[in-house]
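Posting this for the archive.
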Amino acid sequence: MNAMGWMRMGAFAMVACLPAAAQADGEVCTQVATTTLETAGAEISSSKMQEAGSGLPKHCIVTGLANQRVGADGKSYAIRFELRLPVEWNGRFLHQVNGGNDGVVVPALGDKRDGMASGGTVPLARGFAVLSSDSGHSGSDPANTSLGLAAGAAFGLDPQARRDYGYAADMTLAPIAQKIIAAHYRKKPEYSYMAGCSNGGRHTMVAAERMAESYDGFLVGNPGFDLPRAAIQHAWDLQALVKADPDIRKSITRDDARLISSRIIEACDALDGIKDGLTSNMAACQKAFDFKSLTCASGVTQGCLSEAKVDALKTIFAGPKNSKGEALYSDWPADGGVGTGNWRAWKVESPVAPWNNYPIIATMGAASLNYIFSTPPIAVEGSSGKLIEALLKYDFDKDAPKIYARNEMFKESAMDFMAPPEVDDPKLAALRKAGHKMIIYHGQADPVFSVNDTIRWYEKLNANLKGEAAGSVRLFTLPGGTHCGGGITLEKFDALTALTDWVEKGKAPDQIIASINPANKEIPASWSPARTRPLCPYPTYAAFSGSGSIEDATSFVCK
């Protein structure tokens, strides 16, 4: 057998052969061991040693796949994964769950998104063994090319692919990764973590209920835990914006977006005790700012918005409803980051292909809402124009209930396989019984998943736990932050260390220090590049203490 390969033995076993002496320093990708996998059909595709470079340590890269099969749609499926094993291992395992519609095995570095890197150092470089996967489907299947921009969601035609995307791939891979790690290092991980942003945050929240015992800590960023309901918002947005201008790209222009942001900051900036360009006191801001204040007075055309544009904004921020006035998702808060960062890209206009200058969500959202989140799935032509048309025709009375629908072929609804099982009544009993921890962070101006929805989830959990939710879960909101990075905000922070300190040392995070991302071009010139702020656990916020530099986190308290 090839010394760098793993081979299946029967349906369950994988073997690697190298002299035992070569294993002593951990610098090889395989080891004399027979690892019996309890998941049938798993196999290793390749393993190779990667020398140190580009900020990464010397490490082993293992690729593999599990559960190869032919789907109900006649296409081939498998759960593909990558596991990176650093030579200098810190004893920890991190399952990096990815965003969007998945479908790609991204490099298992631990990700560079806010909250997961320390001083720009990714978790792999900090010594974590890291796993990533495509969640059971390929987003670039050549058989889907005729679907154009909808191809990445076409796996929704297969019930098992839906289930894998929702939760089953994570449940399949966790024990596989643990066994490979144990064989490679000759000991199990001391601590295991799961982390991700957006859909990755959803994966993590789902895992905290479905497989709470598998991970000691869960790091959740801008979570799409309510993703099927949030997808309805995308149709709601476009139907509101097209009334402001038939060309959606002109409904809220870049100048309009800057105006909205500046007016919210003007109304809410000082509510945290100091004028610093941040809407830290988000709760008070909702009373201080009214979108009506943006409306142009008679004869005025500058520094204001038309009544049609204001009506569109008010409709969007109120959240989607059916004809009975029943909420289908969530409302949204006013925050100084609205209109900045990636807000317009998701809501109004994407700056680059492949979305042909239309909103990202017009393509990703329309395809997902129809192929993945509707039962039965609805085929949609894959041009950006056809996808937008699908959202503009979406019926909130007839189509919205399809996210809860099941049939003989699709026995789980979209809410069944995508959301945490207790999404509307969380208790996290298994997580609490195991003594495990969760940190959630969420941008207040997130245009994809409303921070208000996350806050309501947390408040319900806290009510169920009689005010003791903070013993297991803490939520941090980012003033000015948009979707998984960007906005007028301080977006560099190390929530992963905060989580490991909580799990391993019992040190609960009373604040997490955030600093400026120098790559963020929207940071006001008046801000010091060295500015820092505490991120505070909800419901507290960073308030000025009354003395000290406004550029220094030590001048602020969580109030």
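Residues 12 and 37 are 5 Å apart (CA to CA). Residues 159-185 form the longest helix (27 residues).
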